[in-house]
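A reminder before we start the practical. When you read a complex entry, don't treat the lines as separate problems. The point of joint prediction is that each chain is placed relative to the others, so the output describes one connected object in space. Small molecules and nucleic acid strands, if listed, are placed in the same frame. In the example below there are two entries. Take a minute to note the order of the lines before looking further.
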Amino acid sequence: MNINRRAFALLAAGGALALATACGGTSDPAASGSATEAATGPVTLNLWTWTGAPGGAAMQRAIDAYTKDHPNVTIKNTEIAQLDFKAKVPLALNAGEQIDVLAVQPNLFADQIKDQLLPVSAWEKDLPAGTMAKFQPLSLEQNKKLYSDGQLYSVPFGLSGSAVGFYNAALLKEVGVEPPQTFADMANLATVLKEKKPGVAVAVMPSGADSWFQDEFALTLVGQQDKDFFNNVRYNNGPWNTPSYVQGLTALQKIYNDGGLDKNLIDVDYAKAEETFATGKAAMIFNGTWDSVLLSPAYREANKIALTDVGALPVPAVGDPATRSLRSFLDVTMGVPKTAKYPKEAADFIAYITTGAGVDAWAKDLGLIPAVQGWNPPEGTLTSDAEKTGLKTIQDLIASPHGDRNNLSAFSAEVGKGVLKVIGGGNPTEAAQKMQDDLDSGKFS
Amino acid sequence: MRRTLKGEGRIAFLFLIPLFVMYAIYFGYSFWFLIRTSFTKVSISFANAVDVGWKNYRLLLEDETFIHAIRNNLLFAAASIAFALTLGFVIAVLLASGVGGRKLYYAIFLVPALTPIALVATVFGRMLQYQDGALNQAFRAVGLDGLAAHWLTEPGWAFAAVVGLFAYLIGLPIMYYTADLSTLRTDVLEAAVLEGAGPLHIMRTIIHPMMRSTHITVILALLLGSFRAFEVVLLSTGGGPDDTTEIVGTYTYRFVTSAGSTIGYASAASVLVLIVALLVSATQALIARPRRAPQERRSSRRTKDGGMSSRGAGAPASPSGQAAEKPDAERTSR
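Here is the predicted structure of the whole assembly.
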């Protein structure tokens, strides 16, 4: 076949153009500068989140509110199951898929994909003035810990903490007991319930097949005696089997033996624990602050939870009530990938949902505590004193934790089993040593 | 017997090529990827993998929990096989013998096997909880409070509960046996009845040996299936208490879903499990290899020369089952 020079030149030019167009799809817009200019026509932002960050319906409310004010912008939220998110996002980014706003999981994942994210410094100028100053200082500090080079590649969205307690305020009022501050109070509550409300357990928490929460609960108790314990392990390679940890396990064992917690409920999984509390079969539930949805009357009504009033409190103290606290950390952060087509619009939307008017739209569900300073739920979200005080308690606890809830999940599950063994009568020192051996093995890091 | 045509093998091979290619891509690539990943320290993003040599394998082989998990896999498989070869077999024979309400019984035994295992395991887990579990509630309702136990948190009971759950899922073996029983030669059974053999005797010395190939299928299916039965444990006991019921599936799952760089470690665990499963299959295949009697081998040689095969000639059953093999048509009907 003969191809004349003119035809060949046209083909070559066409090929080069096609190649340039294709490459342009994955180029760094911050570097080129062209894409950072505001789009004049219709804009479609692709947002990727995982389930619970903050949840499809909650995010849609924020999207609807934003697009109402920005009629040229359409936002598509791709919500992916949490476990799949870590696998799918890197693949999509490597393939050059247009993602304009990405929810970034605040764990090892963040640092692993940082090379595919625009540094915040590249789009900070597109945020409304003073946006960065609106974040809680602690949330920005925790955000920096996510990235090995000390730069910010995402901004805080929401925080959570663990462990915390929620109580059936109406039930406690009925039996004439104040919300417990110590485990001695808990044992007293158990005695009162046995007398006045037989069949109602003092407290329930995820356990059994969801033993990871036992690790969370034990660490909360340990933090009452040794505030630096977890951060020392997590960031300084500190030991796990410290005297304070063994002391925490010993205290936990004693709490169960004294009746402050019910040994008969250590086989319930997450769902059963929720069900037990929601159906009034337990006066309290211990869980993460993500369960603060229970404070919302609207949530309880929508989910047919018959509890009329719910409050929240810190995990009771083993000794001095002043030591009560929890571990908290960022739960969701928001970044702009290099594959973003509209980084400027993405930055504006991020500001709207993290520190702007969009916060109320998603945060009124109360599952995540917003990272913006001084947030209060919209009027009417909470009605009773117990609900309002409970949310304030949770916000205060998250803002001043004793350590970061920056877990290694596989290790957490392993530790949870050890904690359950101690509750069942195992030796706390031996259990702590086994956890130390597991940690030293390197298989969990 | 039809003669093999010249070049027929090559044509058959050509037709098989697409299948081989598909297998090579699907399995070959998967295995290669798994093996390659097992020598690295990497997260689920598969980015920035660090080569760690044999470290993951060394850690696994030094990990008592992993060894314990493999042992549990084999123990649960053994229990499952024991139930299938005894209870499952007897149930299948009884149902095939024409008892009344057969369809109802089939439904009762087969439905668990056809129901998603995740659902069955979750319901079992709920039923066995101490406080509100149906089993303890039932004991309390009839005044047998003393029998209420911590089924999921006492190590012995938890192990027994998982064994019970495996036993509950014997519907598939029953189905295998039922299918094979329908092809069983009735003349042998009639002869036995005429000779005065009782039902138990017939079941033990005639039917059981005649179904040797089904036993092998059942054993292999349950043995290898135990390595994939991770929902059974995850959703009932979660592997606890204290690793008592841990199996390799639940063990690996924790590392796959971890936030850390543990995918290489999980891959190494999968490779080791794959090797164990292959060894089990090879051993089982060797043990279960049909051993033909000298007389039969002579007959086979005659067959090659165009004579009649002795297999399927209705040779009397023997306890070992060697001479009780069914005709090829029957054996391949499943």
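Discuss with your neighbour: Chain B is about 65% helix and 0% strand. What might explain this?
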